[in-house]
Amino acid sequence: MKAQPNEDGGYDTMTEALAALEKKGYTCNFNLLSDGLEHKNEEEVIKLSPGEFDITEVHRFEGMTNPSDNSILYAIESEGGLKGTLVNAYGTYADALSSEMIKKLDTRHVKQ
Q1: Helix H or strand E encompassing 87
Q2: Is residue 7 included in any domain, yes or no?
Q3: pLDDT 10s digits, 34-81
Q4: 3 within some domain
Q5: Rounded to the nearest 5 degrees, what angle is found at the Cα of 82, between the Cα atoms of 21 and 91?
Q6: Domain count, the chain
Q7: Does a structural domain hold residue 2?
Q8: What is the pLDDT of residues 11-26, one digit of tens each?
Q9: Would you say 53 and 75 are in contact if contact means Cβ atoms under 8 Å apart?
Q10: Rounded Cα distance, 80 and 54, in Å
Q11: What is the model's pLDDT at position 4?
Q12: Which residues form the domain of 91?
């Protein structure tokens, strides 16, 4: 079964969204740092500052059993063409971030 966006352009589950983004070439898994992003693989560790990447898509998900279990999926593309995803909690469990990262992750200007 092919993952399709729902009526509002989003996905019903995180799994569907991740699978669809992977098919679009978003294959790296980014980790959130207080001042940027990091991608680790067998050969190297790549760190990106807020000025070195763009957020191309955003998808929000709420926990089915616990409304406070909220997460957000970012599709990320670096200046060098590295494409991947970042999954992060929002609300109560949000991470402590630098002001520059808070501005970068502000999704009001990104396609949702």
Answers
A1: strand 83-89
A2: no
A3: 889 999 988 899 999 999 999 999 998 886 666 666 888 999 999 999
A4: no
A5: 60
A6: 1
A7: no
A8: 888 999 999 999 999 9
A9: no
A10: 11
A11: 45
A12: 14-109
CA distance 91 to 75: 19
What whole-number distance in Å separates Cα of residue 19 and Cα of residue 98? Answer: 30
Residue appearing with tokens 């929000």: 60
* Cβ-contact 30, 83 below 8 angstroms: no
Give the CA dihedral 84, 100, 68, 1, nearest 10 degrees: -20
Q: Please report how many Cα atoms fall inside a 13 Å half-sphere around the Cα of residue 102, on the Cβ side.
A: 6
Tokens of 80: 């060098």
More confident residue, 97 or 36: 36
Average pLDDT of the chain is 80
Indicate whether 64 belongs to any domain.
Answer: yes
- pTM of this prediction? 0.77
